[in-house]
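[SOLVED] Need 3D model of a two-part complex

Original post:
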Amino acid sequence: MAATLFEKIWRDHHVSALSAGVSLVLVDRVLLHERTGGVALKSLAATGRAVAAPRQVFVTMDHVVDTMAGRGDRTLMPTGTAFITETREAALAAGLTLFDLGDPRQGIVHVVSPEQGIVLPGVTLVCPDSHTCTQGAFGALAWGIGSTEAEHALATRTLRVKRPRTMCVRIDGMLAPGVTAKDLALHILARHGAAGGAGHIVEYAGEAVRAMDMEARMTLCNMATEFSAFSAIIAPDEKTFDYLHGRSFAPRGTDWDAALACWRTLRSDEDAIHDSVLAIDAAEVSPMISWGTNPQLAMPIGGRVPDEAASGIAAEAYRRAIAYMGLAPDAALEDLPIDGAFIGSCTNSRISDLRRAAALLRGRHVAPGVRAICVPGSSVVKAEAEAEGLDAIFRAAGFEWRESGCSMCFFAGGESFGPQERVVTSTNRNFESRQGPGTRSHLASPETVAASALAGRIADPRRVAR
Amino acid sequence: MEPFTRLTAVALPLVRPNIDTDIIIPSREMRSVSKTGLAGGLFAGWRYTEVGGREPNPDFLLNQPAYRDARILLAGANVGCGSSREHAAWALAEYGFRAVVAPSFNPIFFNNCVRNGIVPVLLPQECVDAIAGAVLAAPDLARPTVDLDARSLTMPDGTGYGFTLDGESWEMLRHGLDAIDLTMAREDIAPFIAADMRKRPWAYL
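Solution:
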């Protein structure tokens, strides 16, 4: 019978039906970080339960750690140290693989996992982190959970899961030069809303997706949680296999051959039926920027802030959003002065993101008064960038060059941008006070962040000559 | 977890779309590696006048005497979007909330509610608006009743709204069950894994 990609993986992991629509599903990989994983490990130990398959559990430090050179367990975030030390102790006590501070493999969990070959096509992978959907780019069923569910997965190697409906988001045609996966993600959110994917596993397909490299696919899948989707997934192909081949935890030898034979079957059959289908014309996507306090409130950089009626949200929420952002209906965003520029996060901090930003920054300098920061997504990315000399380009352009971590993607009481400061950011959330109390965050691609940092104003990267 | 049968309580109307988990509890309020000590940080960004402070913002409904004992949250669409932090559900539960009424839920937040004894009550926007309207007019009097057996929310004037809830979530909430205990008692997982290891050896480390 014809099946979708999701259905094939679901079938392989289906242990038992529990009640209408809910199944017990085998979990192949559990990832944890110090912010929400430590509490799960502690709670598990406190209830006398053991981690059932410690070799399949990985722990990294990313959320709370500082990103300054010479960092240690002490953090700018008040009480952050406890998250690091208690997670470390719990991870070591349980015999888990830990990518600790100082480990060359340390970094943001959704950057590290693919780098190390932990995520694979056709596996189920969970992490108490909403952006776990990022890893669906590899054809894995990867989704974010709470800490209590993480305990469940650790103790039983399974989860009780409500089966999502399937949605195919087909991107027809090709993205124009200078238009990125991030712009596409924001375009989809702007068009279909922050709840547009609710209840669904979203399979991204179509010509534009096939043409993307693995890192662009990760960026696209990353924001499926902003779409309220259960998760996102992309059928694996030769690019996926090439990326994973030889990675530390990827299968080797005959296991690799067996895996490859299985992985080549992982795509939606021609006549498979999705519960819903969205078609997006890639040619309609242009560089995007968010104007409000939710990722769906985004528009092309050259556009104008919609009025209340056209905003797609309730009147009170609209007024609150534009007041918070210091904007007015019909305001243009292009050329609006900025105070900060941030390149980092699980959305856009991989080597290709840094290369594209560096290509714009090379030989130039950020505008006076702009605080610009680049935080590589992992220590591997940082080392690779430094080997290519990208760090020198960022530094010469006036960017701070940091150690890897989630950093100022979110404010946790430590480092932040200032009140009412306007920041162009390659991250995924523009919520109120997300990057600092009162900070105004505009989501965009790394190119747009770089171009805006140079101009000191929100700028279309296509207008910056390379 | 305390079984949920029926609750009549003051409702807190915050019917705005996309109330994210940063709003329910800001990251800066997650101060220890613990599931407790979070109620003070609930809605901190809206509830207090300053970041990190505890001076009540008089405009925020929860600070007004009529709403202080609220145990039912009325929210807009896509409630609990954003970060997966279960601290949002822990903070709500610790404050005393046992039900969240909204037109749609973020999937992770939905599960976190169920795992912590909070009933997710799915009702259409116009119903949530009508309930909120009645509550705002008389918060002390218009106290909704959430009845899990009947899967209904009823207002004191008799207006009733039926809601759907999947059997699994209903069972967990109604009997205060621990999902981990239930699953650990099962005998079908080990044989499934044994067979799967032969079928997909490459997936095992």
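Edit: The two ends of chain A are 51 Å apart (CA to CA).
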